[in-house]
Amino acid sequence: MADITTDVLIVGTGPAGSATAALLSTYGVANMAINRYRWLANSPRAHITNQRTMEVLRDLGHEVEDEAYLFATGKELMGNNVFCESLAGEELGRMQSWGNSPASQAAHLVASPTAMNDLPQTFMEPLLFKTACSRGTQARMSSEYLSHVQDADGVTTTVLDRLTGREFTVRSKYLVGADGGNSLVAEHAQIPLEGQMGVGGSINLLCKMDLTKYVAHRPSVLYWVLQPGSNVGGIGMGVVRMVRPWNEWLIIWGYDINGPRPELTDEEAKGIIRNLVGDPDIAIEMTGISYWTVNNVHATRMHNGRVFIMGDAAHRHPPSNGLGSNTSIQDAHNLAWKLAHVIKGAAGPGLLESFTAERAPIAKQIVTRANQSIGEFGPIFEALGLLGSVDPVKMQENMDKRCDAGDAAEQQRAALRAAIAFKKYEFDCHGVELNQRYASGAVVTDGQEPPVPNEDMELHYQPTTWPGARLPHCWLFDAAGGKHSTLDLCGKGVFTLFTGIGGEAWEQAAARVGADLGVTIKVHVIGPRMPVQDHLGDWSRIRETRDSGAILVRPDQHVAWRHDSLPADPAAELRRVLTSILAV
Ligand SMILES: Cc1cc2nc3c(=O)[nH]c(=O)nc-3n(C[C@H](O)[C@H](O)[C@H](O)COP(=O)(O)OP(=O)(O)OC[C@H]3O[C@@H](n4cnc5c(N)ncnc54)[C@H](O)[C@@H]3O)c2cc1C
């Protein structure tokens, strides 16, 4: 007999674990979250928060989304990605990033009701954790996962209470390993991992200093400092990252992973920081030094029986593209509704197989993208002539040559411009953020093909209602004039069916099939004199079905299935699709 019983035990209260707990509690599923430490994130590691993650927060409730914006640095202060010799020194170039170029701003506005922002992990984690606890999660800090055993009916996990030194057991129907990049749960569950850990060494130097005079005229999250010596290990150059504008900073510096790990003193750290800033007299208050490695690893399965892994446990990669905590929170959004439906008896365990089918390819994609982005700094080094030599004097001379007259210097300038512009694949990569599409048993395409992309799918979001894609956003209106995103009309743990005039029969069909299967299916009939109206015509343009057709959306806002027009027996069609998706 276990000491504690719950439906889902979550190991870890980072972005992945806290988001899972918050979503499960919102869906009314009993869950418990443990963290081996006494507290949440104590350093602001993840920060870039993309639109899809903000949509997950919005799905948790407007109050959660609003609080995120309250503590975040807005997009408008994120947008100049500066490359320089030092902050006080010469600027080598910059690119407009994170949805701030005029074209990208428009694309972001069209794509989502939410905005990208910079929310340090020290704010995101407490927000998700608080949401979880206030909605029912039982949280235990200073409680360390030690091992688990699963059988046909559940999982028994042994946990160490670090305050008393005593062990206790938790019996749950499912176990979620959201225990980060050194996941013990993944190891014990024998989750297969591909790739290599420790391909580079990086040091985080957290400090307070007022850099207003060097940065306020070119506000940005990231300032890349190319100095001879800064390209050792890590991510290849010195990074000055804004934590709070403009007096709290995180400096990232590399070390050679093949040598011993340096143990920097505060004074040595200040020396590195002053060089990167280019101001030998700047006042610095050190607040932390930590070390991390650049990893290139992804899980090829994300569950084994009743044990699931997510977040950094499943995808371990450098911070490039800012995808870590975003993908972790999005993993949670994918799994939570499935667990809820299975635990409540509305779905069979087969539905849970789709977690691996849908999220493992995303894990691979983002790990590959983040590591590729590091490599894509290479052309900048090359254009500046920093690759052929380790002699600082020679390197400086090569950099200076770009200011000369003549063909060679003109080519060097062109190469540098092109290399910096190419970094949009790291700093303005909207497609990677929003184009996640699923192929699994929890999606029914009925043989329909995805639309042919007309732009680079990594850079640009391509809206579609093709089953598996995230439901495209546009604004719709209620009779009182209230404005709602399509995403506001779905999600929240239930299925939603969108139809139009002539499709009213879908309402009865959804009510009947929903009652039979024990699932809620909300229906919106959209059109003139209907409760929801498409005054702008955008919905009709993007829905890719006729008025009487149907778009069935899953609780995680991804399209489950669509049908072009009203069939002879809509209830039979819905039953066919839902029994297949729910594996019942
Ligand atoms: C410098 C830096 C910058 C970054 N920038 C970004 C960014 O801009 N955007 C972005 O999205 N991501 C970024 N990341 C990555 C991001 O921090 C991680 O991807 C994210 O924290 C992963 O969340 P997680 O919940 O999976 O794991 P973690 O945040 O690592 O949380 C793991 C949790 O598990 C707990 N735990 C571990 N082992 C046990 C155990 N045995 N028992 C109990 N509890 C346990 C831990 O205490 C913790 O609560 C950055 C990372 C770094 C280092």
In short:
The chain has 584 residues and is an alpha+beta fold. The protein contains 18 helices and 26 strands.
SSE diagram, text form:
Layout: E1 4-11, H1 15-26, E2 31-34, E3 48-49, H2 51-60, H3 62-71, E4 73-74, E5 80-84, E6 91-96, H4 102-111, E7 117-118, H5 121-134, E8 138-140, E9 143-150, E10 155-161, E11 167-177, H6 184-188, E12 193-208, H7 212-215, E13 222-225, E14 238-244, E15 248-255, H8 266-277, E16 285-299, E17 303-304, E18 307-309, E19 315-316, H9 324-343, H10 353-375, H11 378-384, H12 392-400, H13 407-421, H14 424-427, H15 430-434, E20 475-478, E21 483-485, E22 495-500, H16 505-517, E23 521-526, E24 532-533, H17 538-542, E25 550-553, E26 559-563, H18 570-582
The chain binds flavin-adenine dinucleotide.
Give an overview in words.
The strands form 5 sheets. Strands 1, 2, 8, 9, 10, 11, 17 and 18 form an 8-stranded mixed beta sheet that branches. Strands 6-5-13-14-15-12-16-19 form an 8-stranded mixed beta sheet, with helices on both faces. The protein has a 4-stranded mixed beta sheet with strand order 23-22-25-26, with helices on one face. It has 584 residues and is of the alpha+beta class. It is 33% helix and 25% strand. The chain folds into 3 domains: 4-75 and 117-193 and 299-372, FAD/NAD(P)-binding domain; 378-422, no CATH class; 437-582, Glutaredoxin (3-Layer(aba) Sandwich), CATH 3.40.30. It is built from 18 helices and 26 strands. The model has no long low-confidence stretch (mean pLDDT 96). The longest helix has 23 residues, at 353-375. Strand 20 (475-478) and strand 21 (483-485) form a beta hairpin. Bound molecules: flavin-adenine dinucleotide.
